[in-house]
Design brief:
This protein is an alpha/beta fold. Helix content is about 30%, strand content about 15%. The strands form seven sheets. Strands 5-4-17-16-15-6-7 form a seven-stranded mixed beta sheet, sandwiched between helices. A six-stranded mixed β-barrel has the order 22-26-23-25-24-27. The protein has a four-stranded parallel beta sheet with strand order 11-10-9-13.
Length: about 725
């Protein structure tokens, strides 16, 4: 009889990697349960999650990809043959070598997503191959806030919501009641229980907003105006921290002049938030310190107004003294261990790249822009991640595939990503993917994207590979842990794919670690930890230090901030130097027209799914069987709908079908569920798993020319639309 053992390991159904205990027998996971000794250190919190109890089902699900597959019919025909890993790797490497020889290294692009893999091995391979074309969703998730906070403070910040020490909290464009099954949502509810002021900014009365003392239902796309309105009240009523502003802020006087138009009355006219509530929110935040201001993905998807909103919120934290202060926020530090930046070899690649004009045209940001910010952060010895913040803009990648301009992209490797569903403008993505000479997908399950691939390779998933999350190197934290079992069937960690492909393409010296665990142990080596040492707790961090800007150097000078002025850049000299707005300046957006009179939000997520993942699981599907479009009862009445009606939501790009749900929210706005497809439908053309039915990205556009010029953010929230009964 095989030995039965209990193994500490981690979930990977979202980015939190909660600690689990896996009962293993005969190389199979028989049972999983929360591990109260590791994050979130509370089994009760974990029992609120619907996903991790299904791990054993997912690990041996009949729809899992277990062996390498090669297309044998027409692209999208659904006809495959099982091949060996060696054959797949040999053929992919040979094809890439031929394409590189014909077109140059820019012929390859990659697409990443999350959260069931690690990205630095992909970036390392690309650097060695010579391609700048790594692509993801950073422009509408994470990058805008990282960029804005770094330009303002000299480095990103982490927020601190402490039920005991925080006196006021604003949650802006974030809905942990649906997006978070872990400690944060528990913390929000505990904060509310203590009776402290909680303000939620969201067009919808979400589960999070229902906990708030004050809900600010901002019209989609107008968040920057609301943020500037809060600043106007705080400045007008002198609720700011005068000592901090005088000593540590640059450009406050210019801000005061800039805020003159943003009166409560004007803000109400533009945003729909009552002027009296703007004043109330400003006073609650300004008078109750320390105060925490959390922002989420909702802000990241405002297109031209994403960056101005992040900048206004960064200024709001600063002038109220809620920067680098316990219970409010802390300026993060570079890791004590080896950061992703070094593991991905981006710096040597950038230093030796010939910097062709085509690269400057394609990249989201030129290295010149990245270099300007790096010059400032290096004043404190800090280096931002490079590949994330210089990633290729997806719209330009798709266009290059179709036009060959500014250079041909004829191949793509997709890892833990489903761009046919998750990237803007599905029709454009479809045409681009269909045009390729080589499409490789590494995945757990077949997806609409993998259905178009030439090769589909089985990724090791939850409990089958070690995990290490490091926030891309912008904070001194690492969390994760070891795998519970060896991968089932012929699944492999994605690291193995990139290493083996690299070896076949002449990269032998750059891949010294045969196994992924060895590479992770190397990354922790400066700490003096072995991988087993780290896995015992699954967490490394140092206690936060505060007011670091006051620290003195050897010459007795204050450390200050890693910016041009050495202070918080309310007025950004660096942005002015880059030809951008030095103070946050919102853009006017269309508020609808006769043809499309409503405003669309396209990024809503609902439990129990994680984005577009896990629609295959019957138990989850029974909990949430159909895609939803939300609208206010008043909007529904004016449109002549009953709740539960089947409707088509239409924009100038296309239409998608949803079931109506009436909720308190802004009038004349609708919110459609993101990431919906139908795995039970045919996994081939023309159905492609129902990609053409209820996919929110049939309604969206990622056009580069209409995107934010600094970050490349396209618009997902605030799109003119109409709703028609089926």
């Amino acid at each position: 009889m095989s030995e039965r053992k209990v193994v500490p390991t981690n979930c990977r159904f979202c980015g939190y990697q909660c600690g689990l205990l896996a009962t293993v027998e005969g190389g199979k996971v028989r049972k999983v349960q929360p591990d109260p000794s590791r994050y979130p250190n509370n089994a009760g919190i974990m029992r609120g999650c619907k996903r991790w109890p299904l791990i054993t089902e997912v690990m041996d699900h009949p729809q899992r990809i277990n062996y390498p597959l090669k297309r044998v019919g027409e692209r999208g025909s659904g006809r495959w043959e099982r091949i060996s890993w060696e054959q797949a790797l040999d053929e992919i490497a040979a094809k890439l070598a031929d394409l590189k020889e014909e077109f140059g290294p820019e012929v390859l692009a990659t697409s990443i997503g999350g959260p069931h893999t690690t990205f630095w091995p992909l970036h390392r391979f690309l650097a060695l191959f010579g391609s700048p074309n790594n692509m993801g969703i950073g422009q509408i998730c994470w990058n805008p806030g990282i960029w804005a906070n770094t330009l303002t403070y000299g480095w990103p910040v982490d927020m601190e919501l402490d039920p005991e020490g925080t006196e006021c909290a604003i949650l802006w464009g974030v809905n942990p009641s649906q997006s978070d099954n872990s400690l944060f949502w528990h913390t929000v509810k505990e904060f509310k229980r203590r009776g402290k002021p909680l303000i939620v900014v969201d067009p919808r009365l979400t589960g999070t907003a229902q906990e708030a003392q004050l809900w600010l239902p901002v019209r989609p796309g107008t968040d920057a105006v609301l943020a500037l309105g809060l600043l106007q009240v705080i400045v007008e009523e002198k609720l700011y921290d005068e000592e901090f502003v005088q000593n540590w802020c640059h450009g406050f006087e210019r801000l005061c002049d800039h805020l003159t138009p943003y009166t409560p009355a004007y803000v109400e006219e533009v945003t729909g938030v009552k002027g009296e509530d703007v004043i109330k929110a400003a006073r609650l935040y300004g008078k109750n310190t320390p105060a925490c201001l959390y922002s989420g993905r909702g802000i990241d998807q405002l297109g031209l107004n994403s960056f101005p909103t992040h900048r206004a919120l960064a200024i709001l934290r600063a002038i109220t003294g809620n920067l680098d202060r316990p219970g409010a926020s802390h300026l993060s530090e570079m890791p004590d261990f080896i950061p992703e930046l070094e593991l991905e070899l981006s710096e040597p690649y950038a230093a030796t790249s010939p910097q062709p004009v085509s690269q400057e045209k394609l990249l989201l940001q030129s290295y010149q822009g990245y270099a300007k910010v790096r010059e400032q952060t290096m004043k404190h010895g800090k280096r931002l991640p490079m590949r994330y913040l210089t990633s290729a803009h997806p719209h330009r990648v798709w266009k290059a595939m179709l036009t060959g301009e500014p250079y041909p992209i004829r191949s793509m490797i997709v890892m833990a990503s489903n761009p046919l569903l998750t990237q803007a403008d599905t029709q454009l993505v479809y045409k681009a993917l269909k045009s390729l000479d080589l499409l490789v997908v590494l995945e757990l399950f077949q997806t609409p994207t993998s259905m178009l691939a030439d090769y589909v390779l089985p990724s090791a998933g939850v409990l089958e590979r070690p995990l290490l999350e490091t926030k891309a190197g912008v904070a001194n934290i690492a969390y994760g842990g070891d795998q519970a079992v060896e991968p089932y069937y012929e699944r492999r960690p994605d690291y193995d794919f990139w290493r083996e492909l690299g070896l076949r393409l002449g990269q032998e010296e750059a891949w010294p670690w045969e196994a992924y665990r060895e590479a992770l142990e190397y990354s922790l080596s400066p700490l003096g930890y072995t991988w087993d040492d780290f896995s015992c707790t699954g967490l490394y961090y140092q206690d936060n230090e505060y007011r670091k800007y006051r620290e003195r150097d050897e010459q007795g000078n204050s450390r200050g901030f890693a910016t041009v002025s050495g202070k918080v850049e309310i007025y950004s000299e660096l942005l002015q130097d880059m030809g951008a707005d030095p103070l946050p300046s919102p853009r006017s957006l269309s508020q609808g027209n006769a043809e499309f009179p409503l405003m669309l939000m396209s990024g809503a997520r609902f439990q129990p799914y994680y984005a577009s993942s896990y629609h295959q699981l019957e138990r989850l599907r029974r909990m949430h069987p159909e895609p939803i479009v939300e609208m206010s009862p008043e909007t529904g009445r004016k449109l002549g709908f009953e709740e539960g009606a089947l409707v088509d939501v239409e924009t100038e790009r296309g239409k998608a079908r949803f079931r109506t749900r009436f909720v308190p929210m802004c009038d004349y706005a609708v919110s459609v569920e993101y990431g919906w497809w139908y795995p039970e439908m045919k996994a081939s053309e023309p159905e492609l798993g129902g990609i053409w039915l209820a996919n929110a990205n049939l309604l969206t556009s990622g056009d580069f020319d209409a995107s934010d010029p600094l970050v490349g953010t396209w618009t997902y929230n605030g799109i003119p639309c109409r709703v028609v009964k089926v």
